[in-house]
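Researcher: Quick test of sequence recovery. Tokens follow.
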């Protein structure tokens, strides 16, 4: 029998991981649309993301001349990072996306097609 703590951890892990099948297909998951070129974020949500990722250690800068505009497709060589847990909890529509840093901006990317869905200036 599982205790309440292990059940809670299982639920959190399931919510935060997303489904691989959903992440690979175009469609809608909750309020997040996968396979689209943009994500709707409020100014407050953008601020939450920017604050949280500045605490992260982005180890590898992207190659020179990488486009950082919504809809642009990034090269596969660009390293993507998982958004912090606090972002996934506060901005649920961003949980299936990843990010990278380009020109000191937070660039939110759909990892299924490497397309930029949001650029947050810092």
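Model:
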């Amino acid at each position: 029998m599982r205790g309440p703590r292990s059940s809670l951890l299982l639920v959190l892990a399931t919510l935060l991981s997303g489904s691989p099948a959903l992440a690979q297909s175009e469609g809608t998951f909750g309020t997040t649309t996968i396979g689209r070129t943009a994500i709707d974020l409020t100014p407050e949500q953008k601020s939450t993301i920017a604050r949280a990722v500045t605490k992260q250690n982005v180890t590898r800068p992207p190659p020179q001349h990488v486009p950082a505009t919504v809809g642009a497709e990034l090269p596969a060589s660009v390293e993507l990072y998982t958004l912090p847990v606090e972002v996934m909890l506060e901005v649920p529509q961003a949980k299936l996306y990843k990010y990278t840093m380009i020109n000191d901006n937070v660039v939110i990317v759909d990892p299924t097609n490497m397309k930029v869905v949001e650029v947050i200036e810092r």
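The longest strand covers residues 105-110.
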